Amino acid sequence: MRILLALLIGIYAFGTDVCEQKEAEIFLYVEKYADIYKNKNLNLSEEEKYKKAVADCNARDEKACLYIYNNFIIDGNFKFEENIFNLIEILNNVGIIIEIAQPSSNKELNSLISFNSFKNSLEVIDYVLSKTNDKKIIEELKALKKRNTISIFLNGNGCPAYSNGKLESDTIKMPCLCKKNSAYLLLEPDNIRQAFLNLKLLCDKYKDSVSCGAVGGFYENGQGVRVDFKQAKKYYGLACDGGYQYGCDGYKRMMGY
Questions:
Q1: Which residues of 12-50 are buried (b: 16+ CB within 10 A; e: fewer)?
Q2: Omega within 30 of 0 (cis) for the link into 160
Q3: In the Enzyme Commission scheme, what number(s) does this protein have (predicted)?
């Protein structure tokens, strides 16, 4: 489990290849529409604007949802939302509304924003679970966590279809989304093989250095594939060449192979 968590952290902490450009695009996209919503409501105080945005987002106003996303996830501004369950529900609603938003030309960005909303909701849930002993709250939060995790998996259409231990295509429609979704696949033992194949494809075809490092870890530790130190060395080397220190460290361990 510690190995899987290390891989999981790596995917998020150093995801600067297939995700780097998309994250920059998300920032500009969200900022644009958040500013449009903000400018439409200049007569309102910040707190009034926030409350209106929540109501408008629930009514499927995408600009309002992006305004909330900008406040919560980009700016880290939570000062107008003290109820933790409200915060979780709002993040969930943003994820749902943005995922089904039009036009389809923004599908990849919307899917990534939706994913990030659900992911942040899960992080809030995990934080509260670590701080409470209230059995009722724990039960409610675990139910929410299960629902959100399912939403993330359903959102993971950026990856190729998977069946019988193989990917059905060597093309990834949304590489960044696939990379992020693969991290969550690692949380379930039955999905590790699929995560391995996704990340291997991201390395082999899309040259994502973090994915290469993760694949090296899979080969070294026999996660989703048989132990193969030569392959581990190869993929760690590719990761290191791409500037990922985890890969360089792994390559050193494999020097005798």
A1: eebbebbbeebeeebeebbeebbeebbeebeeeeeeebb
A2: no
A3: 3.5.2.6
Under 8 Å between Cβ of 115 and 181: yes
Distance of alpha carbon 84 from alpha carbon 125, whole angstroms = 9
Q: What is the pLDDT of residues 119-146, one digit of tens each?
A: 888 888 998 899 899 999 899 888 888 8
Closest to 202 in 3D by CA, of 224, 228, 227, 180:
180
Q: Count CB neighbours of 160 within 10 A.
A: 18
pTM listed for this prediction = 0.84
Gap between the Cα atoms of 170 and 126, Å rounded: 35
Map out the domains of the chain as residue ranges.
Answer: 21-155
Closest by Cα among 219, 120, 204 to 160: 204
Q: What is the pLDDT of residues 234-248, one digit of tens each?
A: 999 999 999 999 999
